[in-house]
Predict the structure.
Amino acid sequence: MAEEAKVFDFKGGEILVFDKPLEWTSFDLVQKVRNNLCRKMRIKKLKVGHAGTLDPMATGIMVLCTGKATKKIEELQAGEKEYIATLKLGATTPSFDLETKEDATYDTGHITEELFRETVQKFIGTIEQVPPEYSAVKVEGQRAYDLARKGKSVELKPKILVVKEIEVLQFAESEAKLRIVCGKGTYIRALARDIGQALNSGAYLIGLQRTRVGDFTLENAQQIEEFLESLKDIAIAEETK
């Protein structure tokens, strides 16, 4: 017998896992999913939210909740996260990633693999971190990134957070790749900045992929194009129409 097709209840609540495309904001993904679901269901409004922002220059896991499942967002946000981060050593950018151009360069001749490995170990555990100016942190009701993109200086308070693991996957004189496991609120861009400073040099992200959020991994994730294509054929619970 053929397997019975799953019936989706987007108002009752569904959890959707995506691999966010490069250069998309978190809001871009939420808006795209919400608009297409509303069109499919022939309704004007539907709650859709995400369990953790992912920067435009990052790819990887984004967990979206619909309808009544949005009540689970806080719980999902608290889950452990894992990233693969590629750092360029010896330079900085205002956003600590490729969103902005390099604003300073530094010597890297003194940075050996041994020094690099010793330095990153100092960031494992409970640490204090100042969020990037280019972040979703609110300052007097406005997002810090909106102020930063307008050229306004933003002073953000440090936060206490937990970094569980940092594994050096690759190292070269001007580039390194890390696997990072951390808790809620960790900015990998800010970690790159702080590692650069601790090396008496500079560093910023040239690549970032979130590979896990709680129990969700990239194996669970779908591409947005695949999801939009599947909407043509999926069955939706009667009460949500």
